[in-house]
Amino acid sequence: MLKIQALHKVFNENTINENRVFSNFSFEVKEGDFITIIGSNGAGKSTLLNIISGNIDCDEGIIELNGKDVSNIGEFKRAKLIGRVFQNPSLGVAPNMTILENLSLADNKGKKFGLGLGITKKRIPYYESLLKELDLGLEGKLYNKVNLLSGGQRQALTMLMAVMSEPKLLLLDEHTAALDPKTSIKIMDITKKILKDTNITTMMVTHNLKQAIKTGNRLIMMHRGKILLDVRDKEKSELTTEKLMYLFKDANIKDDLSDRSLLI
Ligand SMILES: Nc1ncnc2c1ncn2[C@@H]1O[C@H](COP(=O)(O)OP(=O)(O)OP(=O)(O)O)[C@@H](O)[C@H]1O
Ligand SMILES: [Mg+2]
Q1: Which ligand 1 atom sits nearest the alpha carbon of residue 44?
Q2: Cα 44 to ligand 1 centroid, rounded to whole Å
Q3: How far apart are alpha carbons 64 and 77 in whole angstroms?
């Protein structure tokens, strides 16, 4: 459903800060895949998601979504097909608007004409039922402004909003990293439940190795713009954090060696 072909991306080309993040990077995602993505800092995980969503342009390469080349389609238009949740709980919501207004906005995403006030009112029982499933007591707070909510409540609301317009692809970039451990587990549980119910194809970046092993059907390890490991199903469930740590260390050692060998 997502096909990335021969992707190239260099930041600050021809300057002292030149940074080649992707060289001939190709990658495919199958319909219904729930992929966890791990990798060292600066591996290119967020850049990859930003290129897929159209937030960052690639230099070369083709991004194909559902058989359609979207490489030249702007981020705003692509957003009809792609939902996103970021690390910062404030990014996915309009903090000065009420929960109801936020949900109604998400409900309208991708529609040519917004829902009228009357229709929004008719949708309230539906919104309440969605909020009730989160089990955070938000169903009674439809008229509360979102900036009064906790980070966890905001992130749960953002998850709901991201899947409301039934995107083809959901991109989660460390969406539980800014939360305390207990809330982080709660948001992961909500994430898994929503994805089980909707079966939306998902790519989720995380630094939590245990979470990456436990969640989804496929795991990818990235390092310096390359995929070091790509496993699915049984092979994935047999992974251990120790094995992943070993692969990380091994990759770093190899990099150190090649860097040093350049100096000799
Ligand atoms: N807008 C930008 N301008 C210049 N360089 C950038 C930009 N965005 C990312 N980079 C660089 O690209 C490389 C990959 O960054 P990216 O944010 O994709 O890493 P990451 O794998 O998400 O890391 P982390 O785990 O720290 O979030 C880094 O070296 C980063 O400094
Ligand atoms: Mg990142």
Answers
A1: 18
A2: 6
A3: 14
Ligand 1 contacts (CB < 6 A) are 11-12, 19, 21, 39, 41-47
Tokens of 31: 């319909």
Q: How far is the CA of 224 from the centre of ligand 2 (A)?
A: 12
Determine the 3-state secondary structure of 93 from DSSP: coil
Report pTM: 0.91
Q: Three-state DSSP class for 11?
A: strand
Quick one: average pLDDT of 126-154? 92
Distance CA 131, CA 103 (A): 10
Angstrom distance (rounded) from CA 240 to CA 161:
33
Least Cα distance to 50 among 173, 164, 227 occurs for 173
Q: Are 263 and 253 in contact (CB under 8 A)?
A: no
Strands (DSSP E) found in the chain: 2-11, 19-29, 34-39, 60-65, 68-69, 82-85, 169-173, 201-205, 218-223, 226-232
The SS3 call for residue 172 is: strand
Ligand 1, atom 27: nearest CA belongs to which residue? Answer: 41
Contact yes or no for 71/24 (Cβ under 8 A): no
User: What would the two tokens of residue 262 be?
Assistant: 């350049």
Average pLDDT over residues 214-222: 95
Residue type, 167: P
What does the mean pLDDT of the chain come to? 89
Contact 50, 58 (CB under 8 A): no
DSSP state, residue 71: T
- Residue whose Cα lies nearest atom 24 of ligand 1: it is 41
Burial 106-135 (b: 16+ CB within 10 A, else e): bbbbeeeeeeeeeebeebeeebbebbebbe
